[in-house]
Amino acid sequence: MGEGRLGGAPSLPSFVPPPTPLLPLPSPSSSTRPGRVCGGGSARRRGGRPSAEGGGRGREAGPCRRPGRKRAGPGWAAADMCKMSFKHGTTLLMVASYAGHIDCVKELVLQGADINLQRESGTTALFFAAQQGHNNVVRFLFEFGASTEFRTKDGGTALLAASQYGHMQVVETLLKHGANIHDQLYDGATALFLAAQGGYLDVIRLLLSSGAKVNQPRQDGTAPLWIASQMGHSEVVRVMLLRGAERDAARHDGTTALLKAANKGYNDVIKELLKFSPTLGILKNGTSALHAAVLSGNIKTVALLLEAGADPALRNKANELPAELTKNEHILRLLRSKEGHRKS
């Protein structure tokens, strides 16, 4: 038994690729040497060439150098450093933006670094700054022409990344600079969906007030309300219902927010959903929220649904009563008591 019996597998989360180290990174709080924009960086010199992985016996060459200072070797200057790329197309500007080194970012940009250059995965310096929540870096990049339109191979944008990780100030900055509120991953997940998945209430309120569609589903039919219910985010569920979320919106497999919350035993979510009178009967997938709660052994959930009017005499598509799905005596007593009241 389990979720397979309910005809509704758990929803796989939508995902902007997680933050992975671009290079071995120095700490943003590390002290810097006098006269340098930032201290020892992640590229090392070996035989006159930088190594993305570090190592070797050469002295460390910081990603930002004194303006105009020559590198060891003929023809090397700060501007050359700014234009170098490492493994997978990573640039020093991406590294500095990821780590939140605002002084490094400024120096690299002033030395001619390409702000909108994309890594092999499609990510840019703006994407990494947004993903990591470095709003000061994001604002600076916009001053020098950063674009919000670049996408990763998964369809990710700076706005989607910031929303997934709950960076409200970054989301606000991106929207002010023209980010598309309707951006979607290639699986259909929107910024609102990703924020709902993570339970970021302040980001959700901002997105909704900026025109996000509260009922926009992914390609598999999963709506933001559904994913918030599966994750147990009751406050998010409440806000979305108040903003017009469809309480009975079903995924392509027929499961609804209430059924998923009942299966998980998220009683605070169920209480919010019940305020909007969702369907308590048999759903398109042939089962009910009560069947799901009984099958999962959630005693308090069963009591909540029965009190709201769920019918213990309904049979699922396998012709089973809720009482036939459990041996829990407490649940059986609740079901029999309700059935007795219903008959009387």
Report on the structure:
- The chain has 344 residues and is an all-alpha fold.
- It folds into 2 domains: 137 residues, Alpha Horseshoe (Serine Threonine Protein Phosphatase 5, Tetratricopeptide repeat); 129 residues, Serine Threonine Protein Phosphatase 5, Tetratricopeptide repeat.
- It is 41% helix and 3% strand.
- It contains 17 helices and 3 strands.
- The chain has a 3-stranded antiparallel beta sheet, with no helix packed on it.
- Helix 11 packs antiparallel against helix 12.
- The longest helix is centred in the C-terminal third of the chain and has 15 residues.
Helix-strand sequence:
HEEEHHHHHHHHHHHHHHHH
**How would you name the CATH homologous superfamily of the largest domain?**
Ankyrin repeat-containing domain
CATH architecture classification of the largest domain: Alpha Horseshoe
The span between the termini is 33 Å
Number of helices: 17
Query: Can you give the mean pLDDT?
Result: 82
Which fold does the CATH topology of the largest domain refer to? Answer: Serine Threonine Protein Phosphatase 5, Tetratricopeptide repeat
Structure described in brief:
The chain has 344 residues and is an all-alpha fold.
